[in-house]
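User: Run a structure prediction on this.
Assistant: Running it now.
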Amino acid sequence: MIELFNNYFKEQADVNLITEFTSVDSSYKGKIDIRVSENVLVFDVEIPCNFPFSENGFCIRFRNPKLYDVPHYACIHTASSLDPHQKLELELYGLRSWIKDYVIDKKKDKHYDYLPVPYKPIEGKQLIQKYFFQDTNVKFTKNSYGKFTFSSFGYENFFITEFLNAGNQCLAKMFWNTTLNSLDKQNVGFWFFIQDEPVVKPRVVANKWSELSKYFSHNLKEYLYRIYETQNNKAKHNREYTFPILLGYEISDNVTKSIQWEAAHVNLKDFFVKIDNSVSRVLNYKFTDSEIFWQQTLNSSYDRFFGRGKLPDEISTKKILVIGTGAIGSQVTKILVKGGVRDLTICDIDIVEQGNLCRAEFSIQHIGFRKSDTLKWHLSSLSPFVNITIEKIAKYPATTKEFEQVKNLLNQYELIFDCTTDNEMALMLDTMKLKAKIFNLSITNHAKEMLCITGSNIMEFKSHVAASLDNTVPNFYEGMGCQYPTFEAGYLDISAHLAYAMKMITKFLKSGIKPQSFIVKDNFDKNLSTTSHLIKTYTQKELNLKLVISEGLLDDIKKLSIESIPKETGGIFIGRFFDDNYTIYISEILSPKKTVNTEISFTRHVEDLNKYIEKRFKESKGEFTYVGEWHSHPNGSPEYSGKDFDAMTKIAQDVQIQTNNPILLINGFSTKSSQITFYVFKNNKLYEYEED
């Protein structure tokens, strides 16, 4: 590699190799000068040992410490290449462009680039301390100063909670969550607004306190020395006592202005302010050459924290309740918190068990503790803005005063996610007719489908839909001593289905469309895809009948109808009946292999259909069977004809079919629109359904 580097730079007409490359530590180092538009610049060059690969987004570093008015590391990002010679060409081309833009043309980037602060752990520490702050409406003025309080959360993480002025009056409070605000606030530091960046030269941050003396007025220095005296007395001569100082200055991207804070830790045994009487009798204060131990600061204002991806305001600003924090509920809360939700209540009285860990948001140390308590702490660590409340919601009959109390409590919420498998809870929520939008989320055994049921009569609707699916009874026992079975579904399957479901819910809420129930199902055994189907419901009010079908099946009917233009097409429905045949769920549509169809008629051959119906009937143990017919009316209406009525009469009277009240769907359509109507044959008459 060394020979390649030396030869390459020697071959360039506008480059002079000053110092040949040698291997130093884990890189190759040399020196070049380069001519761009009559400008000759000298650069120290450092190439990583894993060249042509990059490290932290950079490959070759070109450094010129004399370029004080521009970043002294040339910020070059080039395309990837495994060819070392080509990568060198890309890097050198990038250097030439950088020199033209920033050195010759004095280009200014649109966005402010934070100072390259040289962080360093304080004595006795291994990690850099991090101080989190937020933007405020306070207009800090040059040479202003005061105190700030902060809370500790996790190892070496400190959240600034309040800025106080010199008179200990509150200037600004940080709007963190209640968990952070309830922590110990006795931690105190001191802030100084110096107006300008704490640098010795542009982009070169001061390394010694003496280099910052010019930024501090006499009053600031005097205040610093008083701090030293006060803290020294408080520490009771503990010379290892340390405390943080914040230095604030204004930054701008030519459009908006903001305040940036840099943090430094000081130690009493090496305090950087001394009294200097050598110049005059007037009391002077001198900054020493003590090293500055810079610590990291992070502007964690809400919009910055969630800038890369926040749920829409229709969710993030709402008061939300999640009931049940197991496999589904715990992941729902995580999605909500990471999406910027501020007001979240969780409800679950269960204890974390070992079996929960493989598919819920819990860890080994949580075993034996209440799910709600451990989840609250975990979620608080994901966002400093979410306020989490734990609520215990008991179930009561509608005739009791406790029922009304719970109803009043739940009416405070705008969104409720019921992630339990508790049918009694769902029934109680239905009975209460709450103001909130309710989403009942559940998953079938082996995670074949996820159901999201919303609207009114959730429990009844859910039972109908769930019973229509190929769902098996949970029969997995975790081992000897486990009395109750559980459903089988891993974290991957649950999270995949749930992410799709939450995306659908978000779409409904953001668009303002009335939320609809739907099913999420993976089709990996067919085409490696995941689909969601809205669940449509229809009512025949005169007969008090219900019909349930997924929007996906209706879309399939529309597609088949268009493909058959200009002729009619059709098929049959497979489904099952509920509620003593008052509710029907259509689960499949079938098209016959052999048909006789014209522009005004459709006749099907039944041999292949009968075989499938018989097979489906046996597989489902009599649950799924033939329930009706569908066909299209190209360039026509969805009204039934005399032939349609006669056909349905014949089907209802057929002893072998054993369906007294068959369903009929007619798709009246053109290339521009489609209108679907359902009918049911009963009492020698076709009754029309209305969509709910």
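The first strand starts at residue 15 and ends at 24.
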